[in-house]
Amino acid sequence: MYMLGLQILNEGAKLTFIGRGRGSIVDLTTASESIVSRIHGWRVCDEAESSSDHQYITFRLQQRTVREQTNQITHKGWKVECDLSTQHMEAGLFLAQWTGDPNMFSTSANANQRVSAVEAAITMACDLAFKHIAPSHSGKPPAHWWNADIASKRKTCIAAKRAKTRCVTKLHLGLNRGQEEAVAVANSRYKEAKKCLKSIIAARKERFWK
């Protein structure tokens, strides 16, 4: 369960299954780490008739506050360049099938319902198999072709531009007399970094647009 990012909510030693004179705790309630803190009052409801060998299980799910909903940041995709975990992918597909609506794939389901079920299964599998792309804090989602290499090159380019700006500013203020060569070097480094950034972005876009 830990590998799937799930926590078991079962508490106490009450039996969840009673059949043929024997009982056991075979029914597990699991939840993702993001909502565990909002689940309260988990218990086995043995006073109600379930018409089954399995006992009812009840719990309360606390609603998120407005602040929590506002501050919630969701990821915008997956880092598909990372190594694929086939075990996690299979676990995600199994979990989607286990927790999803079984009627979605029946003959009575329409095309839209089946497409929604497949999308949900693929999303859950990818959530487990790939690392998430870090969310953007600027309010604008990152481009689909953006990756860590481009981010690193952009950081280098910005640093080179700032170094060039400092050299030029000092030269104009008379604080860097006789250092025209240093300004030229800083300018050359910035141009090279900018060229490299543009090149890697163009190559990345071309790969996705093919």
Q: Would you kindly provide a written description of the structure presented here, covering whatever features stand out?
A:
There is one protein chain. The chain is α+β, with helices and mostly antiparallel strands. It has three domains: 1-63, no CATH class; 86-129; 145-209. The chain has helices spanning 66-71, 86-99, 111-129, 148-172, 180-209, and strands at 6-8, 17-19, 22-24, 30-32, 39-45, 56-61. The strands form three sheets. The protein has a two-stranded antiparallel ribbon. A two-stranded antiparallel sheet has the order 2-3. The two termini are 39 Å apart. Mean pLDDT is 76; it is low at 68-73. This is Endonuclease/exonuclease/phosphatase domain-containing protein. It comes from Aphis craccivora.
At a glance:
It comes from Aphis craccivora. The chain contains 5 helices and 6 strands, in the order ββββββααααα. It is of the alpha+beta class and 210 residues long.
Please give a handful of descriptors for the protein shown:
210 residues, alpha+beta, 3 domains, two-stranded antiparallel sheet, elongated, Endo/exonu/phosph_ase_sf, Endonuclease/exonuclease/phosphatase domain-containing protein
What are the SSEs and their pairings?
Elements: E1 6-8, E2 17-19, E3 22-24, E4 30-32, E5 39-45, E6 56-61, H1 66-71, H2 86-99, H3 111-129, H4 148-172, H5 180-209
Antiparallel strand pairs: 1-4, 2-3, 5-6
Strand order of the largest sheet: 1-4
Cα distance spanning the termini: 39 Å
Q: Percent range for helical residues?
A: 40-55%
Largest sheet: 2 strands, antiparallel
Number of helices: 5
Strand content: 5-15%
Quaternary state reads: single chain
Give the overall average pLDDT.
76
Number of strands: 6
